[in-house]
Hints:
This protein has helices spanning 41-47, 65-68, 71-81, 95-106, 159-164, 171-177, 215-220, 238-244, 249-259, 281-291, 309-318; strands spanning 2-7, 21-26, 31-35, 55-59, 87-91, 114-118, 122-126, 130-136, 144-150, 181-183, 189-191, 204-208, 226-230, 264-267, 295-297, 303-305. The chain has 319 residues and is α/β, with parallel strands linked by helices. It has a seven-stranded mixed β-sheet. It has a seven-stranded mixed β-sheet with strand order 7-8-9-12-13-14-15.
Amino acid sequence: MQITFLGTSSGVPTRARNVSSVALRLPQRAELWLFDCGEGTQHQLLRSDLKTSQLSRIFITHMHGDHIFGLMGLLASCGLAGNVERVDIYGPPGLNEYIQAALRYSHTHFSYPVKVHAIRPGIIYEDDEFTVSCGPLHHRITAFGYRVAEKDRAGRFDVEKAKALEIPPGRVYGQLKRGETVTLKDGRVINGNDLCGPTEIGRKIAYCTDTVFCEGAVELAQDADVLIHEATFAHQDADMAFQRLHSTSTMAAQTALAAGAHRLIMTHFSPRYAPGNILELKDLLQEARAIFPHTDMAHDFMVYDVPRRRELELTKTIV
Length: 319
């Protein structure tokens, strides 16, 4: 699971930051999922190492322009390129009407299937590997946050131990890898769990923007390996954050702390904190780390590989 930040500015693009979009690459299945699609997202994709041909799902948080104005351009370009098989789009009520109106007035036709799913709180997508759920955030219009949860899987199968027990290779290995109990031809009963390491806990990612501090974001981020949370304002501008129903850096950190998240990556920054101003983004990072030390600040094209917890434990052991 690899996260690429394609846009980290709020409201309007700047010279250094585009508006909201985050890509999740799933290399094991050659898929690309997109969270929000602000204006210029397809240009950002072209400048990245991501393959638009792998795009399969798009998740929209809400209907403000800095989160959706790039959607139609991207979908139209994918159709002209002819290299996308199907795209499923998830988002709040009104999203399908917006897409249909844009298609009608621009005389655009998709050459591949596009399915729009109007979401409600709860599980909105599930397959053998992942569950995606959404929950309400607190913003000026209807807004949702998302949680991507990789399913737990059996620990690594100890092939050498199986050979030592003279278990014949073949289909039985697959059964044992899944933790099943198998009766061999010689009558021995083998429990697959005895040949597998500890269960590998699935990775979890939460994406929460736009919102002021709310319990909905805390719930989505429970035990998340990575919480991606907006931090539009500095702490001293909290009054403005409450008026506009956005978060400060400290609100993002408090969300991560309350949720027991493992890492916080802040995004969606106001251009008012550009270098040279009285307050800069480095000040927001310092504010957040005072509450939640494992905080990073996203920048456009930043890439973050979500580690498995087993890998983290091994790293700690080595250190």
